[in-house]
Amino acid sequence: MKHFISIADHQTEDLRHVLDVARRLKKQHKTTGRNDPVLAGKTLAMIFEKPSLRTRVSFSVAMTHLGGNGLLLRDEEVGLDTREPVADVARVLSGMCDGIMARTFAHDKLERLARHATVPVINGLTDHDHPCQVMADLMTIEEHFGDLEGKTVAFIGDGNNVARSLAEGCGRFEMRFILSSPGGYELPGEAVDRIMERVPELDFVLERDPIEAVRSADVIVTDTWVSMGQEAQKAQRLKDFHGFIVNEQLMAHAPKHAMVLHCLPAYRGYEISEGVIDGPRSLVFQEAENRLHAQKGLLGVLMAGM
């Protein structure tokens, strides 16, 4: 692995290795209170065009735990394609830092950073993909169920960047992926075709009725209905997504063992109810913590050759 831009860029064995390294580093820190300083003397440049809690904290703390440094660069300081061309930023940071993590709106900025950088580039989120979140999701599912293969994941809500990356992750690990979205909000047909072209092993199902979608689910995933940049559409989206809330009534139709994930931030009472996110079937906050451990796995593999 040279960069980490999309799940579909990598074969199962590479993703499996990242998860195994993440698990080992998590166990080491939980057991001893520390990690081996495998990134001592190394710096990760962290570019943020979008606000962040989990992405910023997880990468910063991961670098600290592994003996390195996370350098925060705000959008106004970098100005990808506004203050400086992406290619120039990539070259400059490659000469001073050992890795680049960027959280941007446009996915092509990440692709161009990777094209021109000589150090690893990690996608901290774009409007197209959220692969780091999915690695934490896969880690959480595996911790709870003991295995990934054969599990069914039902994504209830907007066919967004998380849904796209999660579908790719499910395909790589031989999991079934069910998407339940209101009409017009599912992943576009060409996007599904592209995913299937890159991850042909994916078992993809589109199910309009969220009740039917959860009936066979081991894991039920949701996300905000109004992502960053969509605020002007809020009123219409709340109307269109009526009936797609993951609440106690919906969970009553799922198998008793089914658990719930949400990448956060959550808008309680909209896409997920208070009772579900704080209830016994929620893995949401274990999932949030695993952002830290999954990032350690990625950083260890990409920047330390673990």
Report mean pLDDT, rounded to a whole number: 96
Number of discrete helical segments? 13
The overall strand count is 9
CATH architecture level-2 label of the largest domain: 3-Layer(aba) Sandwich
Radius of gyration computed on alpha carbons: 19 Å
Q: Give the helices and strands as they follow along the chain.
A: HEHEHHEHEHEHEHEHEHHEHH
Q: By helix and strand content, what is the structural category?
A: alpha/beta
Biggest sheet character:
5 strands, parallel
CATH topology of the largest domain: Rossmann fold
Walkthrough of the structure:
With 306 residues, the protein is of the alpha/beta class. The protein has two domains: 7-130 and 291-304, Rossmann fold, CATH 3.40.50; 133-287, Rossmann fold, CATH 3.40.50.1370. The chain has 13 helices and nine strands. The strands form two sheets. A five-stranded parallel sheet has the order 7-6-5-8-9. α1 crosses α13 and α4 packs across α5 (107-116). It is globular. The protein starts with 11 loop residues before the first helix and ends with a helix. The model has no long low-confidence stretch (mean pLDDT 96).
Helices and strands in order, then pairings?
Layout: H1 12-32, E1 43-48, H2 54-65, E2 69-74, H3 75-78, H4 86-96, E3 99-103, H5 107-116, E4 121-125, H6 131-145, E5 152-156, H7 161-172, E6 176-180, H8 189-198, E7 203-206, H9 210-214, E8 219-222, H10 234-240, H11 248-251, E9 259-262, H12 274-277, H13 284-304
Parallel strand pairs: 1-2, 1-3, 3-4, 5-6, 5-8, 6-7, 8-9
A few lines on this structure:
The protein is of the alpha/beta class and 306 residues long. It has 13 helices and nine strands.
